[in-house]
Amino acid sequence: MAGRKALGRGFGRLWAAYAVSTYGTWLGFGAFPLLAVVVLDSGPAQVAALAATGRAVGAVLAVPLGPWVEFRRKRPVMVAMDLVRFGALASVPVSYLLGWLGFVQLLVVSVVVAAADIAFRAASGAFLKGLVPPEDLLVANSRFEATNWTASMAGPPLGGAAVGLLGPVTTILADAVSHLLSALGIRSIGGTEPEPARWEGGRTRAGDLFEGWRHILRHPVLRPLFLNAIAVNGLIMASEPLLAVLLLRDLGLSPWQYGLVFAAPCAGGLAGSRLAPRLAARFGDGRVLRVAGVLRSCWSLGLAFVPSGTAGMVVVMGVQLGLVASCGVFNPVLATHRLRHTDPGRLSRTLAAWSVSASLSIAATTALWGLLAAVTGPRTALAAAGVLLLATPLLLRGAALRADAGEPALRS
């Protein structure tokens, strides 16, 4: 079975490090808004600014990190970014205990963590491509995806219980420690990493900042995937806070019910990620991307018609189950395609450009849909996002996506 294939000691340690940090991140899910509201008595505008500004400013600061990562060995960069995230997050519980915690610190920490996240992903993708044989990349990415969905299913409920028992900074401390453990795990992988590519003269150029975007937009396979991913992720993430308002305020769900309707369907993401390698082996990467891309666009419109009571919970859980199962299939195949269709000498810049664009798109779309909901109400805004999502598969049309796992990477 593809899901049980051994990928070596090095990958095992990388996967373990990823699992630790991912569980830590999901344990701390929502911790910053909680601190802002409960401890600092922040209002809705400040909480929204915390979420949007951290993601957007962190993405902008990460732009020069793409070339910086490209021309360095990736494992030390990953360790450094884990340590940066550990230090930034650990400062929050320390300041809280000393009575120094303020809103500005939360904002700065969210920016630093967002930028370090992007740099880490840019380095880890390139490191994975050198660590795992090309034919095993999809299996590796599906394992990462399965771990993410498992953590998203278990982490928030456990984190909520920990906050209730031990205090509001408990999960932030756990998240910080998880990055420290991840750094130790990555450091223990061992082996010799190849010397990274160097530009003549030994220095990067201003044009290197945009090389990732040039590669993506000129590439016949990556361009439609990129445009689709930016649109879909932005619209899905913009719907999340609106759905929270609808369920908690308008329909009167309790916090535990709200957590349940999002945690339980993550089992679909786990199942989808486990199926992805088998589906790609049988039908080809291109067909899986097109079909899963269509399926993940079909569900969200149903959120605009959620009834009250138990029936509403059932509807939301059904919609979320279909959505995350489709994403669970799509995401590891997409991640593998990015690695296969990008030369090693520009891979970190490509991954950084992709992550920066995704973060900026989500921040902008979330802010825009928040304004739309303020004018029209959450149901209308959710319906608008659902209708636009129905059109996103058009971005995946074209012969370029007929490449399957066995074809060589296309060059721009």
Structure description:
Residues 403-412 have low confidence and may be disordered. It is globular and about 55 Å long. The chain has 412 residues and is mainly alpha-helical. It is built from 16 helices and no strands. The longest helix is centred in the last third of the chain and has 32 residues, at 309-340. It is 74% helix and 0% strand. The chain has helices spanning 9-27, 31-38, 44-62, 65-70, 74-98, 103-131, 137-166, 170-187, 211-218, 222-250, 255-263, 266-283, 285-295, 309-340, 347-376, 378-391.
In short:
This protein is mostly helical and 412 residues long. It is 74% helix and 0% strand.
List the defining traits of the structure above.
single chain, 412 residues, 16 helices, disordered C terminus, globular, mainly alpha
Question: How are the secondary structure elements laid out?
Answer:
Blueprint: H1 9-27, H2 31-38, H3 44-62, H4 65-70, H5 74-98, H6 103-131, H7 137-166, H8 170-187, H9 211-218, H10 222-250, H11 255-263, H12 266-283, H13 285-295, H14 309-340, H15 347-376, H16 378-391
Helix pairs in contact: 1-7, 1-8, 2-3, 3-6, 3-15, 5-6, 5-8, 6-15, 7-11, 7-12, 7-14, 9-10, 9-15, 10-15, 10-16, 11-14, 12-13, 12-14, 13-14, 15-16
Contiguous helical run count: 16
Distance between the termini: 34 Å
How would you characterize the largest beta sheet?
none
The total of beta strands comes to 0
Helix content: over 70%
Low-pLDDT residue intervals, each spanning 5 or more residues: 403-412
- Quick check: average pLDDT? 84
Strand content: under 5%
Overall morphology: globular
The helix/strand class is mainly alpha
Q: Rg from C-alpha positions?
A: 21 Å
* Order of helical and strand elements: HHHHHHHHHHHHHHHH
